[in-house]
């Protein structure tokens, strides 16, 4: 295949054809479950095994008609459960696709960010520091390229690469990571054809889904209830045989009780809430890489954010230039028709100290202004060769580029960085140093990001080890404006209202940090710098953290120090980051949040959430949604426990009191079709309380259901049980036919379960507010449930297997009145418990 032109890349049509030919660039490690696998898992659930056992017993008793109908219900429930599982599976699959590495490809001559799985052989990709290589490729161009190939080789040493030669040093491999530098590569192998693909089979046994604390809590609760169910099932079976005789009937009564107690909805609720919650976050432009982060969102007490691009728009523009005593405000590049000559060197060396093809917004701002104001002058040097780079470091917040040209006998070194760092490189005398720092402070007080610029000449043969070995001369200062996002002040205020501290951590000048913090609504009375932070003893650092909300001139390593110090104080920390060096802090934080646009692959892989739009307001929206998900999950659990209580009561009490049985396995199967959607999709779609962001964060480690909420659930379920059993007893006492009494008792049970949906939406009394803000899903589920109830009661062919007959009009009115009394009773119980507990 001929190599594409480096300045064009593949066309969209050609890329689509190659994708069709070679398939997606992914390994055979996808853990998505096939349809048959899901069906097999569902069919092996204890609930369905009990249904099958009940069907077998009906066959043994000679009631084949009842058995066939029950088995039909088994198929229906399996179908509904499989559809729900598939929906969840599709939601998780979509998230996996979104979270796959991205690639910057040349398509139709334009750089385009595409999913890594859509990379095809022949693609031209541009890589930069922190990117993960999506496919095996040849290096066409490189600049100080170094890779971490430990994923393939097991060696932790950095491997340097270049475009020259034909060996492995001119190739990059899928899965490896750019430690530094930039490269233009041409893909020659994707998916299983890559080096990583050849060893991919060893990855298929890896399970990336780790169980969260909440999932573990629900699993433990499910096991305990299942054990209780088995024990009660055996007790009821023995009681039935002892009191009434009939082994098969006793087994059916025990199976009915076991089905009523078995909490198979709990795991379903958990995965549905987390998966669909992650989809809701994705719609809000927040990608969830780990589902456990969703439950942690409601517990976040501290939110650590960067300034640039998170609080601000990340749209840098040169706003002011300072050379000596001259000041020049720059409204915009187009308005500056004629840049005074005295400012030319400042802009010239700022460009030379930047990357030739910059991605950083500040460097792009330098290039944009220089291309406008220095065009046609001798201050632009497209023919110079970048020979060496000196990177920014925690010890010296400055970077330098050494350039070589044919005309000059000496090399040119250009440097830019923090004003104090540049002043240190230039060894300014005290009076000049004070003047430069005062000018920088004036610019920073305007909310500008301030950089100093210097240059040096070097005629030696070997490059010095450090920047201090050059004789730099100070050129001037540049102030760059990055406007605050319009939505930030309101979002910060919302965080404070929700009991969440917002800490700003930035590499900017302290005065710039203070100006932006005040605009954002953050307390900025005291600002701690990175150097001050590093010098503090641990005991003093904990005291400072209680008072300081803005940290300036901090490095990624110091961000990690701050995260760990906050965690040591018991805070649950959410942390934003974008660079390679931010990865430790993102991974250490309870909720690591990576930037989607300007973040590196390393940062995204270390984070639990990814902001696709680098928007601070999206973080606040994610916290609000996280609280809503947890609140709805808690209410769903309260409802699920409550609706099982009357089922248990109607299974046990008639046996103990010698009444005709109300429930059979067929009735339980029907109720499962009602309870499952109600406890999962209905509560998941609920909009939640409008006061969620006015509450304090949930404490980490709090149980999903506290003792008070368990009492609430049991009280609501107990009241429903008493009402249904009382109705059944009264009907039998009035010599009502057993079939009609059973029909009305079952109708009352289903109606009270439906009423419980409204009352379970909050833990406090709501009265008429319980019916407000309902999602359309609620109406669909309730309508379908009540329609199905009418069908099995009024249509003789459907009513017969259930042992039902069409009730009288008076019976229906009585059930409706009981439902109204039930609602008033449920709200009264909540009111009494609220007064009892305050």
From TrEMBL:
Stored Pfam families: Cation_ATPase_C, Cation_ATPase_N, E1-E2_ATPase, Hydrolase
EC supergroup of this enzyme: translocase
GO-annotated cellular components: endomembrane system; membrane
Membrane topology: Multi-pass membrane protein
Tree of life domain: Bacteria
InterPro entries: ATPase_P-typ_cation-transptr_C, ATPase_P-typ_cation-transptr_N, ATPase_P-typ_cyto_dom_N, ATPase_P-typ_P_site, ATPase_P-typ_TM_dom_sf, ATPase_P-typ_transduc_dom_A_sf, ATPase_P-type_domA, HAD-like_sf
Transmembrane segments: 42-61, 67-83, 225-245, 251-276, 636-657, 710-735, 779-799, 805-826
Protein name: P-type Cu(+) transporter
């Amino acid at each position: 295949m001929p190599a594409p032109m480096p300045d064009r890349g593949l066309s969209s049509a050609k890329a689509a054809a190659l994708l069709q030919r070679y398939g997606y660039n992914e390994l055979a490690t996808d853990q998505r479950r096939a349809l048959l696998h899901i069906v097999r898992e569902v069919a092996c659930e204890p609930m369905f095994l009990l249904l099958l056992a009940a069907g077998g017993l009906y066959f043994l008793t000679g009631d084949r008609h009842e058995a066939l109908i029950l088995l039909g219900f088994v198929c229906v429930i399996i179908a509904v459960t499989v559809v729900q599982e598939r929906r969840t599976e599709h939601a998780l699959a979509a998230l996996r696709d979104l979270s796959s590495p991205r690639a910057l490809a040349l398509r139709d001559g334009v750089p385009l960010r595409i999913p890594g799985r859509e990379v095809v052989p022949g693609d031209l990709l541009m890589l930069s520091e922190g990117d993960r290589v999506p496919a095996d490729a040849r290096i066409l161009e490189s600049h100080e390229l170094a890779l971490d190939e430990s994923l393939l080789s097991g060696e932790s040493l950095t491997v340097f690469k270049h475009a020259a030669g034909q060996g492995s040093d001119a190739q990059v491999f899928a899965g490896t990571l750019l430690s530094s530098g930039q490269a233009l590569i041409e893909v020659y192998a994707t998916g299983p054809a890559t080096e990583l693909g050849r060893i991919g089979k060893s990855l298929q046994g890896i399970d990336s889904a780790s169980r969260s604390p909440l999932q573990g809590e629900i699993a433990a609760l499910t096991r305990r209830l299942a054990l209780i169910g088995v024990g009660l099932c055996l007790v009821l079976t023995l009681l039935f045989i002892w009191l009434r005789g009939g082994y098969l009937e006793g087994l059916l009564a025990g199976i009915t009780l076991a089905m009523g107690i078995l909490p198979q909805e709990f795991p379903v609720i958990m995965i549905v809430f987390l998966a669909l919650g992650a989809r809701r976050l994705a719609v809000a432009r927040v990608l969830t890489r780990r589902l456990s982060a969703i439950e942690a969102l409601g517990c976040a007490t501290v939110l650590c954010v960067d300034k640039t691009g998170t609080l601000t728009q990340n749209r840098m523009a040169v706003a002011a230039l300072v050379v000596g005593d001259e000041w020049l405000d720059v409204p915009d590049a187009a308005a500056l028709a004629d840049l005074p000559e005295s400012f030319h060197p400042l802009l010239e060396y700022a460009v030379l100290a930047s990357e030739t093809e910059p991605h950083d917004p500040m460097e792009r701002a330098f290039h944009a202004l220089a291309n406008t104001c220095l065009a046609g002058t001798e201050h632009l040097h497209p023919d110079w060769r970048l020979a060496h780079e000196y990177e920014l470091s925690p010890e010296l917040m400055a970077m330098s580029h050494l350039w070589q040209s044919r005309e000059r006998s000496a090399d040119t070194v250009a440097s830019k960085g923090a004003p104090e760092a540049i002043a240190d490189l230039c060894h300014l005398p005290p009076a000049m140093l004070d003047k430069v720092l005062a000018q920088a402070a004036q610019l920073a007080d305007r909310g500008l990001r301030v950089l100093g610029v210097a240059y040096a000449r070097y005629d030696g043969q070997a490059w010095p080890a450090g920047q201090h070995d050059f004789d730099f001369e100070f050129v001037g200062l540049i102030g760059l404006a990055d406007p605050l996002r319009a939505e930030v002040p309101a979002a910060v205020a919302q965080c404070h209202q929700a009991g969440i501290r917002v800490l700003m951590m930035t590499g900017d000048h302290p005065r710039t940090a203070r100006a932006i913090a005040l605009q954002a609504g953050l307390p900025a009375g005291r600002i701690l710098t990175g150097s001050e932070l590093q010098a503090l003893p641990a005991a003093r650092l904990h005291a400072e953290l209680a008072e300081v909300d803005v940290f300036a001139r901090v490095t990624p390593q110091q961000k990690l120090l701050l995260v760990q110090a906050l965690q040591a104080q018991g805070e649950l920390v959410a942390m934003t980051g974008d660079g390679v060096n931010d990865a430790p802090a993102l991974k250490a934080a309870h909720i690591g949040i990576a930037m989607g646009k300007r973040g590196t692959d390393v940062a995204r892989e270390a984070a639990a959430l990814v902001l696709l739009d680098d928007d601070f307001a999206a973080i606040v929206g994610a916290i609000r949604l996280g609280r809503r998900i947890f609140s709805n999950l808690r209410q769903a659990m309260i409802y699920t426990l409550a609706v099982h209580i009357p089922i248990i009561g109607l299974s046990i009490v008639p046996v103990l009191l010698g009444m005709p049985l109300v429930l059979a396995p067929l009735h339980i199967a029907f109720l499962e079709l009602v309870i499952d959607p109600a406890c999962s999709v209905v509560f998941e779609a609920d909009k939640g309380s409008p006061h969620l962001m006015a509450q304090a964060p949930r404490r980490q480690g709090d149980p999903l259901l506290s003792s008070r909420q368990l009492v609430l659930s049991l009280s609501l379920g107990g009241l429903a049980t008493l009402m249904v059993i009382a109705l059944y007893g009264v009907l039998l006492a009035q010599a009502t036919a057993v079939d009609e009494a059973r029909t009305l008792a079952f109708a009352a049970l289903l109606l009270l379960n439906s009423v419980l949906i409204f009352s379970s939406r909050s833990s406090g009394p709501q009265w008429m507010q319980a019916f407000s803000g309902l999602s359309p899903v609620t109406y669909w589920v309730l309508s379908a449930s009540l329609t199905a109830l009418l069908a099995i009661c009024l249509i003789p062919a459907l009513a017969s297997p259930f042992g039902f007959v069409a009730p009288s009009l008076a019976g229906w009115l009585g059930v409706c009145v009981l439902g109204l009394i039930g609602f008033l009773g449920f709200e009264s119980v909540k009111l009494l418990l609220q007064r009892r507990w305050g």
